[in-house]
Predict the 3D structure of the following.
Amino acid sequence: MKPATAAPATEVPLPATGAWREGDPPGRRQWHRRAQPLALEGGGVLPGVRLAFETWGRLAPDRSNAVLVLHALTGDSHVAGAPGPGHPTPGWWDALVGPGRALDTDRWFVVAPNVLGGCQGSTGPASAGPGGRPWGGAFPRLTQRDQVRAESGLADALGIGRWALVIGGSMGGMRALEWAVGEPRRVAALLLLACPAAASADQIAWATAQVHAIRADPHWRGGDYHDAGPGRGPDAGLGIARRIAHITYRSAAELQARFGHEAQEGEQPRLGGRYRVESYLDHQAAKLLRRFDAASYVTLVEAMNTHDIGRARDGRRTALARVRARTVVAGVDSDRLYPLAQQEELADGIPSADGVRVIRSAYGHDGFLLETDQVGALVRELLDDAPQSSVRTGG
């Protein structure tokens, strides 16, 4: 039997990677290029770095109105806007960004980079390495600190000395926290959503299973598959990884309420058909395969596993005490991947945090993406307290 991700014979085979490649439509992307080598925390070096990013609104003359939005594992720079050439999906936080919305682009200049190691325009395994071919399996290991150093270079290039707000959830929250601890004078306000001070054994275990699924795919080829041609990428492995991950992103109660023990319409699981929840996971896997790269997935997951804000900083408590930003820490009450106890550790250690704000949601970890009314209220709370020198910029 073919794997669930295999395309019917009438469909065009998937490309070896869903990454954005040179020659693809740029969409709304802009690029920041760092010519100097970037020394990495683990001892490697990237000879040059390119970050894709998007912006909304206008930067005020005093540069006081810039907001940095940091995406989660399979996100990208396209926070807001419709799908179109160069952007296969709509903005992942579209309801939060725009005139009159929580991130009001008549007042705030919103910046969203594609993370270093990602696959939607930034330097990563699918991008060209020193010899002109894709980095592939030779791409060095990264940490959140490496990624934030690259983002710091973007801020310098934009002339932004201090962010009015840094916001991120999940993997984006890890980077937002690194910004506030590593560059405390550059972050005025901080919103941490559904993220920890350090990756737990449970999170590392789930992530490691996903990485092994990708590397076990016979088309993985040690990460050197990017030019292998249509239908010859590690689609099965990446699809399995996505299924595993998506189970942790949703709550057991929500999956039961939506799908129960029911068979997919017209199918009988005992006779080779699928359950409704199985079909749902197949759908989530198929969507990701068209817009993501397996080697980037491995790179970013392994970077998340290294996350420990207290590493080489005399422990987490000491590190968290370095945060100077006005801070709101929030978690999702049904999150089984990053449970509320991890946000409580953050709130206990950050001087300005006033407990944990609880996002009520049936959706589990994905609640930080889906409960935009609740998240928007937290954004407004922080930005309403911002200095009024951030005047309306219009447009």
